[in-house]
Each structure stands twice: as C-alpha cells, then as structure tokens.
Specification:
This protein is of the alpha/beta class. The chain has a domain of 216 residues: 3-Layer(aba) Sandwich (Rossmann fold), CATH 3.40.50. 43% of the residues lie in helices and 16% in strands. It is built from twelve helices and twelve strands. The chain has a seven-stranded parallel sheet, sandwiched between helices. The longest helix is centred in the first third of the chain and has 22 residues.
Length: 327
C-alpha cells in the first residue's frame, strides 16, 4: 500500500485514476477546489484536501507524506480559451505540483500531457517523437508545451523522477457522471450526435481511448515507469479517426439514425465557422498527418498496456450515459 497525491481528481480521467488506486489498496489524497463536489470521491475512500493548484502552499500541504504523485489537473483546449487561465493552471500550477513532489521526497511523478505539440506530420507519433518545430500558438498547446519542457528540464537538471502519460481523445464512464460532460468533453459530443444536435465537425486523426485505460496507464506508470519517458495512452491504431468517425460509431451503438459530416478545411477560413470550434481544433484540422498515426510499442511493453477497442468502449459508455440520464 502506498500513499498517492492526485490532482484533477474530479475530472473524467482523474476520477478513474482515483478509483483504480483505491481498488488496488493505495491511500489517495486528492486536491479539490473549494465548492467542487467531492462526495463521490469521498464515497470511494479518497482523502480530500481542499485547495487550488495555483496555491503553492496548498499543493505542498496536500502532497505531504505521499510516495507518488499523479498530476492530472489542467485547463483544456475548449472553443474559448483564456491565456491567463491556462498559464495559471497548466504552467504555474504544474510547477507547484513538481516543486511539492520534490520537497516531500516523492519517488515518482506521473504527469499527464497531450499530443498537440509533438511532431506527428512526417512520421507516426511515437514515445520518442520530437517536439513540433512550429506548434500551434493557442493557449492550451503553448502552456502544455511549457509544462512538458519544464518537467523534462527537472529530470535532466535535478534528477527528479517524472514520467509523462499522453492521453488520446478520452471518453467513457466516470465516478462523477456530470463532470464527464464538461466542455470539451467527448461524452458530450456522443450525446449531441445521438440527439442530432451535432451534424458537422472538423476532422483530424484522434487516437480514441476509453478513460479507464488512460487511468490504468497512469496508475501503472507509478510503479513501472522510467524517469523522462513518455507513454502513449491511446486506444487501438485501427480506431484512429476524426470526431465525425467517433460520433457516427457512437450513433451506431446507440441505434440513432443521425450522422455527423466533416467540415472541409477550406470552410475554416470563414471566421464564424472557425470560432465554433476554437483555435486548438482549427490548428489541428489544418495539419496533415501520417498513416499510421501512432506506434506505441514501448508503452505496451513497459506498462503492459492493453486498451479496449473503440467498439467495446462505446458499448460500455452509451448504456452508462443512459443509466445516468445523460443521454
């Protein structure tokens, strides 16, 4: 049994991480903002430390006595992005978590990250892919890039044990059902497509992954990971596709006749069309990617990672959404 400090525990991936850690016998302390509903986490047996990731003292106090740290908290890349908010959480907040981990003597930090600033245009995305020499300038991409670079600097300069888990497009069940629908949730896109509320969307390859699988990779990395390494917590290579592909697969599982079409790249030159999707998605839609999109053999070997197929993940998710009256 180990004590684990977890950020982002009210999010879809974070709540799954909390649940899996408790199930394997770990003691979990989660940093949760004042006013956020932590009752489902407490029901799992999670210790709640009230505080904000932007408060260095609160982070340090919550991390005290913890052997492992899993940093899942982030401001995501929704249609509307406020640079200051992304900076405060994704850069400064991450720095607080890494500082606290070092000060309390945590043996490992697992930091969750994103694909958006790695070069996947000339070759498939892999655990050793270089950084994109010209990444998108949207706040989400830029702040997550800076947090990643800072983490790797700490590994090389200070010998801090930090490894990175990169999530694909996560969807699925969660101990906090309502939180799994918060924008830019892919669960919400399932619901919108099934109801016929989403009829078109930008298209670019996304490695779809069941949220529980990202959580499993994160939990496994606490014990099996190696400092400085990245792990691609994606689904199966055959299930890579755009949001229309994903939504249409969900509609089939749900028995809905509705379908989602792909927005042509040329249409994104219209500011009104581009504004509907936000800067992160528009930037991705303009890129060109290789086939296959990714190869994550190192993740599979190092962590023993075995994700669900998209069909199996959706077969779990759609009934769950209905059970919780979200669909």
């Amino acid at each position: 049994m180990s004590r684990v400090f977890l950020t982002g525990a009210t999010g879809m991936i974070g709540s799954n991480i909390a649940e899996q850690l408790v199930e394997q016998g770990d003691v979990v302390r989660a940093l949760v903002r004042a006013g956020s509903d932590a009752v489902p986490l407490e029901a799992l047996g999670v210790e709640i430390a009230r505080g904000d990731i932007t408060d260095a003292a609160a982070v340090l106090a919550a991390a005290d006595g913890c052997e492992y740290v899993i940093h899942s908290a982030a401001v995501l890349g929704g249609p509307t992005q406020i640079a200051g908010e992304h900076e405060a959480v994704n850069v400064i907040g991450t720095g607080h978590v890494l500082d606290a981990a070092a000060q309390v003597g945590a043996s490992r930090v697992v930091q969750l990250s994103t694909t958006t600033f790695f070069d996947a245009r000339s070759a498939p995305l892999m655990e050793h892919s270089p950084l994109d020499p010209a990444p998108s300038d949207d706040p989400y991409t830029q702040t997550k890039l800076r947090a990643y670079v800072d983490a790797m600097r700490r590994v090389e300069r200070d010998g801090q044990d930090i490894c990175i888990v990169i999530s694909g497009g996560a969807y699925g069940t969660s101990p906090l059902p309502e939180r799994s629908m918060v924008v830019p949730s892919y669960n919400a896109r399932i619901v919108g497509a099934v109801r016929g509320e989403i009829t078109e969307y930008v298209g670019f390859p996304i490695p779809w992954v069941y949220a529980g699988d990202v959580a499993r990779a994160s939990v496994l990395a606490t014990r099996r990971g190696v400092a400085g390494e990245r792990y691609l917590a994606f689904g199966r290579p055959s299930d890579v596709g755009g949001v229309p592909f994903f939504c249409n697969a969900a509609c089939e599982v749900a028995g809905s006749p509705n379908r989602v079409t792909e927005v042509a790249v040329a249409e994104l030159d219209d500011p009104e069309v581009a504004a509907r999707f936000g800067p992160s998605l528009v930037a991705l839609a303009r890129k060109r990617f290789p086939t296959p999109f990714f190869v994550n053999d190192q993740t599979v070997e190092r962590l023993g990672y075995q994700p669900l197929s998209l069909a199996d993940g959706l077969a779990r998710t759609v009934p769950w959404l209905r059970e919780h009256r979200l669909l």
